[in-house]
Design brief:
- This protein is of the alpha+beta class and about 500 residues long.
- It folds into three domains: about 120 residues, 2-Layer Sandwich (Copper Amine Oxidase, Chain A, domain 1), CATH 3.30.457; about 110 residues, Immunoglobulin-like, CATH 2.60.40.3500; about 220 residues, Zn-dependent exopeptidases (Aminopeptidase).
- The protein is about 25% helix and about 35% strand.
- The protein is built from eleven helices and 31 strands.
- The longest helix has 21 residues.
C-alpha cells in the first residue's frame, strides 16, 4: 500500500502541473484519437485525427482531396484554402476567424499545425463545404459524408392520355427532395426539386407554351443555386395527383379532364376515388368541413389494421367472442374513406376486405403511392380490463416539412375531435417512433387506437350502431382541419 504522504505529494504535483499548463494532465477524450470514416469507408491517414477542446481536428489535405476537392497552403499567410464544388473555405493557423466564399465566420477551435501538417476543425470545415458530419462519442468515430451530387432536370414535357393531362419532370438521378404546392391569386401549382440543376432548355428559364382546359402554360427556371422550379399556371382550380416513376427519376403531376378518348379501353373502377364529393348541405349535416381545393391532390392512405389470418385483439362478453378487432377496423376504414372523399380528399386503402396485409407492406404501399398522409385505424386491448379510452400515436420525421403539416399536428387534431365525437377517456397524442408503420412511412403518419376491446364499457360502445360513425367522423374532421389550416402557412 502506498504511503499517505507520498500519495499526497503525487496529487499535489499533478494539480500544480495542470495549473501551470505543463500538459501532464489531459482528459480521456483528448487522449483518444478518433477513427475517420468517409462515405462509409474508414479513411486511413498517416496522421490520425485528434480532439482538442472537445472538437475533432484532422489533416485537411487527405480528407478533402479524397472527396475530389483541392487543398492549398500559403506559408507566408499561414493559411490553408479548401475548395469543394462551389465553396471555398480559408482558415488561418491559430485564428478563430475563417472566410467562407469571402464571408467571415467564427470558429470554436482554430486550425493548427501538428507534426508539420495542417489540422482543421472537421465539423466547421466539412459542414461549410456541404458535407454531413456525425460523431459517435462512445466508439470515438467521426463520420463525414460527402455532399450529394446534384441531379439534373433533363426534360419537362406534357402528355395527354385518357381523361388525364400529365406534366412530367425527368432527371438523370433519383429524386429525393421535392415538394408540390398549390397557390391562389393567381392559381398555380409550384413544383420545387431540391438538389437539382436545370439542364433542359440549355439550362435557361422558359416556358413550354402549351395550353389546354386545365392550364395555360408550364414555366421553369433555376430558382436558386440548389432548386429547379416548375410552375403550372392554372385555368381552373384543380390540385393534381403527384407521384414518382418506379425508378424515382421522374415526377408525375397528373390532372384530370372530362374528355375521354373513345379509342381507348375503359379503365376499371378506381377504388381510390369511388365516392363523389358531397354538396354543402350534406357536409353541413355531418358537421364535416370541405377540404380546400389546394389540398385535394394530397393522397391520404387509410390502413385498417390487421385482417385475414391476423384477427387483432378480441372482445369477449360472458366468455363468448363478441368482436374481432380486424372487423371493426375495416368498417371504420371504409367509412373514413367515404367521408374523406365526400369532403373532396383523394384516398387509397391498404385493404378493402378481410385479407392479410404484411406489417411492412402497409408503409410500402403508401410510399409507393407517394402518399401525403398515412392513417392506420386500430382499437386497443390490455391484459387488465380496467384501461379504457382513446389515444393517437405519431412519429416526427425530418421530411414532413415539405407536406406543410406534421404527424404531431394531425395526431393532436384527431385526438381532439375523437374526444368530442366519442366522449371516451382522453389518453392523448403520443410520440411513438418504435411502431413500424410510423417509422417506415416516408410521409406524416398516425395510428389511432379508438377504444379497448378488453374494457367492458368500451366494448359495449364498440358494438353499438354509432361507434363506427363517431370514430370515422372524428378522424375525418381532425385531418381536414389540419390540412385546411396548412394551406395558408405554405410559402412560395
Amino acid at each position: 500500500m502506498m504511503k499517505k504522504g507520498l500519495l499526497m505529494t503525487m496529487i499535489l504535483t499533478l494539480v500544480l502541473a495542470a495549473v501551470l499548463g505543463l500538459g501532464i494532465v489531459t482528459s480521456y477524450a483528448d487522449a483518444v484519437n478518433p477513427t475517420l470514416v468517409l462515405d462509409g469507408q474508414v479513411l486511413e491517414t498517416p496522421d490520425p485525427p485528434v480532439i482538442r477542446s472537445g472538437r475533432t481536428l484532422l489533416p485537411a489535405k487527405i480528407l478533402f482531396e479524397s472527396m475530389g476537392g483541392s487543398v492549398g497552403w500559403d506559408g507566408q499567410l499561414r493559411q490553408t484554402t479548401i475548395t469543394l464544388g462551389d465553396t471555398t473555405v480559408q482558415l488561418t493557423i491559430d485564428s478563430t476567424t475563417a472566410l467562407v466564399n469571402g464571408e467571415e465566420k467564427t470558429l470554436d477551435v482554430p486550425a493548427t499545425i501538428i507534426n508539420s501538417r495542417t489540422y482543421v476543425p472537421v465539423n466547421f470545415a466539412a459542414t461549410q463545404l456541404g458535407c454531413q458530419v456525425l460523431w459517435d462519442g462512445v466508439n470515438h468515430i467521426v463520420t463525414v459524408n460527402s455532399p450529394k451530387k446534384a441531379i439534373a432536370i433533363t426534360n419537362i414535357q406534357v402528355m395527354e392520355a385518357r381523361s388525364t393531362v400529365r406534366v412530367e419532370l425527368s432527371s438523370d438521378g433519383v429524386v429525393e427532395n421535392y415538394r408540390v404546392v398549390a397557390f391562389e391569386n393567381p392559381d398555380r401549382i409550384v413544383i420545387d426539386v431540391r438538389g437539382a440543376k436545370l439542364q433542359f432548355n440549355g439550362g435557361t428559364a422558359g416556358g413550354l407554351g402549351i395550353s389546354n382546359d386545365i392550364f395555360s402554360n408550364v414555366r421553369f427556371s433555376q430558382f436558386d443555386a440548389d432548386t429547379v422550379r416548375a410552375v403550372v399556371d392554372l385555368s381552373v382550380q384543380q390540385a393534381p395527383q403527384v407521384s414518382l416513376s418506379q425508378d424515382k427519376m421522374a415526377i408525375y403531376i397528373d390532372f384530370t379532364t372530362d374528355e375521354v378518348n373513345e379509342a381507348e379501353e375503359p379503365a376499371e373502377d378506381d377504388p381510390v376515388n369511388a365516392v363523389e364529393p358531397a354538396d354543402d348541405a350534406e357536409l353541413a349535416a355531418l358537421g364535416l368541413p370541405r377540404l380546400d381545393w389546394r389540398m385535394q391532390g394530397k393522397l391520404i392512405v387509410i390502413d385498417p389494421g390487421h385482417g385475414g389470418i391476423d384477427s387483432g385483439s378480441l372482445g369477449y362478453i360472458d366468455g363468448e367472442l363478441a368482436l374481432m378487432e380486424k372487423d371493426i377496423n375495416l368498417q371504420i376504414g371504409l367509412r373514413l374513406n367515404e367521408l374523406l372523399q365526400m369532403a373532396g380528399a383523394s384516398t387509397a386503402m391498404t385493404r378493402t376486405e378481410d385479407v392479410s396485409v404484411g406489417l411492412y407492406d402497409r408503409p410500402e404501399i403508401a410510399n409507393g403511392l407517394s402518399a401525403a398522409l398515412f392513417v392506420s385505424c386500430h382499437n386497443n386491448s390490455n391484459d387488465n380490463a380496467s384501461p379504457n379510452g382513446t389515444e393517437v400515436h405519431y412519429s416526427v420525421k425530418a421530411s414532413e416539412a415539405d407536406q406543410g403539416f406534421t404527424s404531431k399536428a394531425i395526431a393532436e387534431s384527431v385526438m381532439d375531435e375523437l374526444e368530442i365525437s366519442m366522449g371516451l377517456l382522453r389518453r392523448g397524442a403520443k410520440n411513438s417512433p418504435a411502431y413500424a408503420v410510423l417509422r417506415c412511412t416516408e410521409m406524416p403518419a398516425i395510428i389511432i387506437e379508438g377504444a379497448f376491446l378488453s374494457n367492458p364499457s368500451d366494448l359495449q360502445y364498440m358494438l353499438s350502431d354509432t361507434y363506427v360513425e363517431d370514430y370515422a367522423l372524428g378522424v375525418a374532421r381532425g385531418i381536414i382541419k389540419v390540412l385546411n389550416a396548412a394551406v395558408d402557412s405554405q410559402q412560395e
